[in-house]
Amino acid sequence: MAKARTSRTTFVIALGLLAVAAAPAVPRAADEPAAPGQVHSLYRVDPWVDGAIIIVSGLGYLIPLQLEHVLITPRCPCDRNEVPGFERWAIGLNNYTAGLLADITYSLAVAGPLIANYFLVGPTHVWLEDTTVLAEAIALSGGLLTIFKYTVQRPIPRAYANDPAVLHVPASYRSFYSGHVATVVTSLTVVAWTARLRYGEMVWPWVVVGVAGLSVSAELVLSGGHFPSDCFVGILTGLAMARRSPCSTSSPVPPSSLASPWCPPGTAWP
User: Fold this and answer.
1) Angle of the 179-199 helix axis to the 125-152 helix axis, nearest 10
2) Residue 97 contacts residue 221 (beta carbons within 8 Å)
3) Among 43-57, 159-173, 234-248, where is mean pLDDT lowest?
4) N or C, which end of the chain is more exposed by having fewer CB within 10 Å?
5) Which residues share a beta bridge with 250?
6) Does the bond joining 150 to the residue before it have cis omega, within 30 degrees of 0?
7) Residue 3 has pLDDT above 70, yes or no
8) pTM metric for this prediction
């Protein structure tokens, strides 16, 4: 499961780097109003700035995963009383199907927007720019996630239950906070904001964010892979990273774009 998730995230980061490298080479007229029926650009992509952010954040996520046998020392059997009473009930849950559904939800949330947007805007600079912003948000979210996982080293519920299949596996001590949830929410929130700004206010993208975020959270808890608090923090972090990460990209297009109240002074979300 962890290896598959790493492969998917690596693919998105690599695709983002290809997109940010190719975007400046694709003809565009970003400062001109979009013709009727033409999808207009929302983002300015700086190959050096955006590329550096994706590379640094991506490596910050991927390198510790390859060194987790060095960075993490399994410490269970553990005292269940370490776990707050309100979520101690999650210890003992171990539903394989729920874990599989969580992986499917994760894959759809990451790959689905890329594929759907390709069919909506075509092989254009707009798709490359949108892909860059999505990959950048996921990479930044993954980088922050890694800091918490390897600092806190919280055992997963199955480790607290003394499950021999996970007891001595380093990956079982990265419960806080949920990378599945954070990535799903980050990806879909970026898509929801992009859809709002390009096509106008719509409710259904936000419904998808909420349903997918709660669904993957429930699946992970039922699988014994996370505590509810891991998932709750993952949702909050995913929302925050998706809303703030494109603040670091270049100026928005067109001038009438919305300024983000979440962005610091001097930056803007288109």
Assistant:
1) 150
2) no
3) 234-248
4) N
5) 44
6) no
7) no
8) 0.83
Q: Count the residues in the chain.
A: 270
| Interatomic CA distance for residues 88 and 81, integer angstroms | 8
Sign of CA dihedral 230, 236, 240, 242: positive
Burial class (CB in 10 A: 0-12, 13-18, 19+), 65: buried
- Reading the block at residue 124, the tokens are 């254009």
Within 67-203, residue ranges assigned H as helices are 68-71, 96-121, 125-152, 157-160, 179-199
Q: Is residue 130 classed exposed, middle or buried when 0-12, 13-18 and 19+ CB atoms within 10 A define those classes?
A: buried
Residues contacting 110, CB < 8 A, separation 6+: 8, 9, 12, 138, 183, 184, 187
State the average pLDDT for the chain: 81
Tokens of 187: 């990806």
DSSP run (H or E) holding 234: helix 228-244
